[in-house]
Amino acid sequence: MSGMASDCNSSSQEEYLPHYVQQEDPFASKLSREADIIAGFYLTVIGILSTLGNGYVIFMSSKRKKKLRPAEIMTVNLAVCDLGISVVGKPFSIISFFSHRWIFGWMGCRWYGWAGFFFGCGSLITMTAVSLDRYLKICHLAYGTWLKRHHAFICLALIWAYATFWATVPFAGVGSYAPEPFGTSCTLDWWLAQASVAGQAFVLSILFFCLLFPTAVIVFSYVKIILKVKSSTKEVAHYDTRIQNSHILEMKLTKVAMLICAGFLIAWIPYAVVSVWSAFGQPDSVPIQFSVVPTLLAKSAAMYNPIIYQVIDCKFACCRSGGPKTLQKKSSLKESRMYTLSSHRDSAALSGTQLEV
After folding, report:
1. What is the dihedral of CA 17, 22, 27, 32, to 10 degrees?
2. pLDDT of residue 202
3. Where is the G-protein coupled receptors family 1 profile domain (predicted)?
4. 343 domain residue, yes or no
C-alpha cells in the first residue's frame, strides 16, 4: 500500500488521490469521540442480539440435522452467514469505535473487509437461492418436488465458492480493501473507480454479480410467487374451508418470506448507493458524517432474520386452530423457529396438487 501511495504521489496533480492516500493517518477517526462511543454501543447491541438470535437458530437446527429439508438447510446457511458477520467482523469495528481509531493496521483492514464482503455476499446469494427454490416449488411444482437434500448441499457448495471467489478477487491485484472515509472501519476500495478504467471495471463487476443480479432474481421470484398465490386463491374460493385456510397461510408466509429479503436489501441498499456515488460521483463529495450512517445500517442486517423467525412463529401459530393434528404441528413449530419457512413450500406443493385434482 505504501508503494501505491508513492506511485500516486509521483503522478500528475490532476490524477485522483483516494482519501487514504491524501490523509497522513487514514485510520484516525474523523468523527467526534462522542459519536464513536454511540456507534460502538450501537454495534455492541446489534452484535449481541445477532449472535444470540442466529446462534439459537443454528443450535435448534443441529438437534434434528438429519431431518432437515432442503429449505431448512438453506435457512441454516443464512443464519451461519449472519453469525459469521457478527462474530468475525463486528468485534473489530466495535473496538475501533471505542478506541477512536482503527487499531488493527492494513492487515486487519484487509481481513475485516474480506470477512464482511464474504459473509454479506454469502447471505445475499443464499437468499437468492431460497427465492428460486420457492419460485420452483410454487410456480413449477414438478421441479419443486424434484429438489432433494443433496441438491441443497450442492447449492451450498456453489454459494460458498461464489462468495469466496468475489471476496478474494481484490487480493489478486484487481481491486483492494481500504479504510472508510471516517477511519474506523474498512470496506471494498470503491475509490479505485475514480483512478482508472480497470478500477471502474472491478467496481461494476462487483455491483452486478454481487448486488444487482441477485436482487433482480429475488424480485422476479417473489413477484411471480405473489401472482401465482393470488391466482390460486381465486381458484380455491369454491373449495372447502381447509384448502382456503391453507392458501391464507401461504399468503401470510410468502409475505413474511419477502420481509426477510426486504430487510436485508433495505439495510444494504443505502450503503450500496453511497458506495456507487463514491465510485462514480464527484470525488469526495459524500460528507464523512453522512457516510457512517449507511455503514451502521448495513451492519445491522444480521440481526433481522432471527426476529423475523419469531414473528413467523407467532403469526403461524395464531392462524392455526382446532384438532390434534394442529396441536402436533404447533408443537413442532416451537421446536425451531425457522422451520415454518419450509412448511410454506410443503403446503404450497400440497395445495398445487389438490388444485390439479
Report:
1. -110
2. 92
3. 53-309
4. yes
pLDDT digits (tens, 9 = 90+) for 233-247: 566 555 556 655 655
Return phi, psi of residue 178, to 5°: -145, 160
Q: Which of 64, 73, 58, 208 has its CA nearest to residue 133?
A: 73
**What whole-number distance in Å separates Cα of residue 19 and Cα of residue 181?**
7
CA proximity to 56, closest of 338, 315, 314, 313: 338
Query: How many domains are there within the chain?
Result: 1
- Contact between 316 and 346 (Cβ < 8 Å): no
Average pLDDT of 335-353? 42
Most confident of 2-16, 277-291, 324-338: 277-291
Domain range for 134 is: 31-356
SS3 55: helix
Q: Does 129 fall in a domain?
A: yes
Place of cell 422451520: 339
**pLDDT tens readout for residues 180-224:** 999 999 999 999 898 889 889 999 999 999 999 999 999 999 888
Q: What is the pLDDT of residue 158?
A: 96
Closest CA to 340 of 351, 350, 329: 329
CATH for 154: 1.20.1070.10
**CB contact at 8 A, 28 and 103:** no
Measure Cα distances from 219 to 57, 127, 239, 261, 344 in Å. 26, 11, 30, 9, 18
Mean predicted lDDT score pLDDT of the chain: 79
